[in-house]
Amino acid sequence: MLDLRENQRLIKRPCRLLQSAATLGVWLVLTAVAWCQPGNVHYRHNIEMPPGAIGQGQLLRGGPRPGYFQPVEVRAPKGATASFAVDGNFGRPESDTVVGGMLIGQIYRVRVTQIPQNEGLEVYPTIEVIDRLYPPAGQKARFPIPIELTLEELEMALDGRMVTRVIYLEDPDRALPRPEHGRSIRYFDVQADRDPLQVADELGRPVAILRMGSRAPVDVAQPGNNFLFGCPPIEFYRQP
Amino acid sequence: MTDDMQQDGRNMHIMPRWWRWFVVSAATVALSACQMPDNVELPIDGSQPDASVLVEQPVVESPTEAAPDAADSPLPLGGSDAVAAGEGSEETENDHDQPSPLVPRDPPGGRVNSNIEAELPPAPTNFDDCPSYEMTDTCPSTLGGYPALPPSAFTGRPGDGYTDGRIPWAPPNIRRPWPRDEYLHDGGDHDNNVHVLPNWDVRGLDIEDTVVHFDTLDGRTLVEPSNRVDIYAPRFASVRRISGIVAHEGWSWSGRLDQPVHLADNNETTPVTAMHQPRQLNAQIGRKGPTTYFDPTIPRVANNEQGPAGFDGSLEWFENFQIVRTGEFDEAEKARLKIRIDAASAWTTKDSVSVFMEDRLAAIDTADSRPQETVKYVLPPGKQQVQIVKLASKKYAKPGEIIDFTIRFDNRGNQVIGNVTILDNLTARLEYVEDSAQCSLEADFFLQENDRGSHVLRWEVIDPLDVGDGGIIRFKCRVR
After folding, report:
1. Which of B17, B241, B456 is the best residue to mutate to test the A interface, defined by the most A CB atoms within 10 Å of its own CB?
2. Could you say which of B88, B103, B158, B322 would form a disulfide bridge with B73 (CB–CB 3.0 to 4.6 Å)?
């Protein structure tokens, strides 16, 4: 009888050791997991991602984003003209300010011509809407996302530099107590090694990205589908 | 020593089994809890967080069993990829009435660059023509031609962002108006913590608060908040980065060749050094400025007492309500009043002070039945109540526009009150228009700077307020 109990004890001892080792292992593993949890936001998106990737990622979040045309107001310098692409060609440039409804996650090419002191040269920036506004009914076109193209930036683009602007919605709790002057939109410069998308996310809610360089179509009359990013549909509004 | 005693002696050196399992379970629960990012705020009611603050959070992956098309289709990286995405969704487009406006589709004769009039359903320029969508409990693989959404991200059928009642869409169980960053708010007591010290110093007056405090005959000082007014006024800014192609080439050379000589050459010629923006620090200063610029003791010193301003007795169009004219709430005006104030529903008959007496509802005699029981309420002396209502002339405004505010206050108790003081702490984006303050009663007006770069408006009514008496305050603010 004693031999039987001794055998049982000998069998249980390794089991208890195994149990203790398993407990210790669970402690170590879970502690390591908790230790490795990031203490700050993990930014999965960055400004270096291909055009459209950030907006398409936003669409996956659901809500009333798919199919919504977010009004965007493009403001070129006085004297210049801006136009959107429709049916594979740019429309007739008429004024320095154009408003169009854009889909989230699509890339829209804009043509800017008659740039002051640079007549004959053209710049073709792109706009990507990555989030939308939720205005009261009937006020959709009155509150577009403003995108300003300054003369300084247009000349930088003509010189071969790349200008990236992330437009964000200000957090009212962090808003600067300064009035806006005229048509200009307040902006902050970041160094070339910083991500403007991340900075904009810290200051508010990013809603659109402007990319402007010196790239131009080979044939201005037929820009081509690739240059226009498929020429996505656009919605026009009557000027108030 | 028996065998049982030997067994007990061995068991004394080890922990009970239930204790070991308890420790393991507790460790699992405690350590496997997810750590939330610092800048993500969950709503108080525990509902799902605002999607707008999760811009940079990991994207919810689309499970292949729920949405195989969305999981397999690549993200569009340009024009050609967008075409591929459109082709991938063609199978489901045929099964539904509405084509997808997300990607340009290929017509039978070949691909043609499309605009909305040629390829898409009629654009919802007129909101009356917008299709209405109904919430569904399940998440189908496609919704009327739209790409499938992962079940965890499905919050409703894609649409124009409005419900059938033309109310802007908001996530379920989230307080409206939503999202908060598109609205300015003014009025109410944000944390319900405004109190007045014996020397009439006010504590707990947060930004956007509007309250009235008054003294009673028995020596107490009571505080009553107004309703909250919400104004749609989004404001934008941008972050700019300028980079050059030459700089990128320089980094590539240094990475491949690893020659310090080349690095020195590139450092001399790269335009990156010319693109350092000393103004970048403005962003940091701007964010911290409102809390660090101003000494909170300054407003006490910088009190700017204004002389009694004149009062225009005629009512503006947005304040022509019974509750402003006489202080009495008219049920027929509820719909129009709700447009002007966010919390107009609080002034229904149910919540009206004149109907509620000592937490009991007064009997209401109707035309088709006689009262079977007569209840007589005797209101004990010493009942103090002040009703304060705030209205705004606009529900939405752009930067630079001016908004007229009207505050109506009334003594709704049964006792005279004194030292009636109305305080309005403006948010940073509302700038008080100088000399625009008016009060229908004789009052002293004070202007103080608050810690957000705006102002605290204070009216001190000179004469005591008799039972049933009230007054109107007007002022203007410019939206920054």
Report:
1. B241
2. B88
Give the pLDDT of chain B (480 residues) as one tens digit per residue: 445 545 555 555 556 788 888 888 888 887 765 544 443 333 333 333 333 333 333 333 333 333 333 333 333 333 333 322 333 333 333 333 333 333 333 333 333 333 433 333 333 333 333 332 233 332 233 334 444 444 544 444 556 666 666 677 788 888 888 888 999 888 998 887 899 998 888 999 988 899 999 998 888 899 999 998 999 999 999 999 998 865 455 554 555 555 555 555 555 555 555 555 556 555 555 555 444 444 444 444 445 555 445 667 677 767 777 777 777 777 777 777 766 665 333 333 333 333 334 444 444 443 343 444 555 555 566 677 888 999 999 989 988 899 999 999 999 888 899 999 999 999 989 999 999 999 999 999 999 999 888 999 999 999 999 998 999 999 999 998
Q: How many CA atoms lie within 13 A of A205 on its CB side?
A: 26
Cα Rg of chain A (Å, integer): 27
Tell if the CB–CB gap between B55 and A131 is shorter than 8 Å: yes
List CB contacts (< 8 A) between B55 and chain A: 45, 58, 130-131, 201, 205-206
Under an 8 A CB cutoff, do B241 and A146 touch? no
ipTM for this prediction: 0.83
Does the model's pTM come out above 0.90?
Answer: no
Phi first, then psi: what are they for A36, rounded to 5°?
A: -85, -5
- DSSP for B121-167, written as a single string: SPPTTSGGGSPP----SS--S-BTTBPP--GGG--S--SSSB-TTSP
